[in-house]
Amino acid sequence: MILVTGARGNVGREVVNLLLSKGEEVVAVTRHPATATLPDGVHVVVGDPSHPQTLAPLLRGVKTIFISPRALGDSTAGAATAELLKLVAEQGAQRVVALSAVTVEYGGGYQHFSDAFRAVEEAAKASRLQWTILRCTDFASNAMVHAAAFRN
């Protein structure tokens, strides 16, 4: 079973879709399950990744966890990730996949995002789980921030 944080976001939703297409059992964490509109076959659970104890009852059977730092809160991402990974490891998880960004290494962008990504990376590496860090650059969906200016 794979637990996905940030499952309603631009990246998390695609992670869920890809995992389902490969036949994986997916648990999607959301604060608002009534409006999640995730695909059939996903086990949608209510929880707040920025407060990992809310997820503790859901972690049994999770083998891999996908961490979206924005789901854990920019200012608390590192501490929340460390706590969540400790909890999931205690239940037998083996791997963490963490979404990050190239700004961790090369700078640029908003500092608070870079700091959150760095903190999540450090927590993943310290977790003793097998880890994969996805250092992304830009997403087309990020351009939507400029949509109003482009229309004007």
UniProtKB/TrEMBL annotation:
InterPro entries: Ergot_Alk_Oxidoreductase, NAD(P)-bd_dom, NAD(P)-bd_dom_sf. Pfam families: NAD_binding_10. SUPFAM superfamilies: NAD(P)-binding Rossmann-fold domains. It comes from the Bacteria. Residues 6-139 form the NAD(P)-binding domain. Coiled coil: none annotated. This is NAD(P)-binding domain-containing protein.
